[in-house]
Amino acid sequence: MNLKQLSQLLGLSQTTVSRALNGYPEVNAETRQRVLDAVRETGYRPNRAAQRLATGRAGSIGLVMPTADGIESDVHFGEFLAGLGDEAAKHDFHFVINPSHPDEEVATCRRLVASGNVDALFLAYMREKDPRIAMMKTLKTPFVVHGRSIGVPTDYPFLDIDNTGAFYDAARLLAQLGHRHFALLNGPDYLAFSIRRKKGTVRALAEQGLVLREDCVQHSQMTDEHGFRAMERFLQLDTPPTAVLCSSTVLALGAVRAINQAGLKLGVDISLIAHDDVLPMLKPENFMVPLTTTRSSLRAAGQRIARRLIAGILQIETLPQQELWKTDLIVRASTGPAPAGK
């Protein structure tokens, strides 16, 4: 199907259909939606070269993916990209994914913007004093940060979850259940979300006169194997933890495996709370002992960031520039009172 046939099907002029597809503000929202619905139903695809000449836009969102020896594949990032894709597909936007060594991400972002192949960029894997933010603020290309850096002014567009509050609430619940010995299975120590989750945990314990021992903290990639090995080590300590916080259900999967192999009963001998990114292949309610979790959907975050970027590019709606989402604390069977005498 070509543009002429699509316009005849809709009873609209070719100019109106083209302007609707290209985000011109004079096309009302109802007409634009009719056009987009017809595009999905018919499989019509505009000539992207002609579209770019007409609008000056590439129709693409850019992202830089860190990759190097020792960096493992990340199911969490895949789920976030699925959310981005859900929203991008609605507006016929593409992705331009540029792999980069972590030490070269600033230069890679700059090159990607300079290429003209993207209309906007999103930044992920925020670090303390992340240099990418200052660089992007000097450019004209729109961007949104997934997360927030630490140690720099928060004067940039972002979407983040309240990581500090989530782990504060989780640790406080366990302390209120009488637990005194805690462990934290966290993400890499250079990432801002990990720093905030540890901060929330430490704050909640301090209010109860407790401390988070350094020998009970593990920073690593969030994989099943890392969760298993760390939990094995914690359980061999002279004073093992009775309460465990995990930054991911993937880490929790390994931790639970170690707990089971040690002959301990989850929710009785040891309690565990994990952060649930709502990964479709790993539902906390489907564990043998359902997991208590702090919950926030990575897919929903991806959808929201794509919507914000595309809305800014096409100027079709005004959305908040800074969003901090609260997490839900969902109590299930993996948490219970501290064992007597511990």
UniProtKB/TrEMBL annotation:
Pfam families from the entry? Answer: LacI, Peripla_BP_1
Q: Ranges for the HTH lacI-type domain? A: 1-55
MF terms in GO: DNA-binding transcription factor activity; transcription cis-regulatory region binding
- InterPro entries, alphabetically? HTH_LacI, Lambda_DNA-bd_dom_sf, Peripla_BP/Lac1_sug-bd_dom, Peripla_BP_I
Q: Which SMART domains match?
A: HTH_LACI
Q: Which domain of life is it from?
A: Bacteria
* Alphabetical UniProt keywords: DNA-binding, Transcription, Transcription regulation
User: Keyword Transcription regulation: yes or no?
Assistant: yes
Answer yes or no on keyword Protease: no
What name goes with this protein?
LacI family DNA-binding transcriptional regulator
Organism of provenance: Shinella kummerowiae
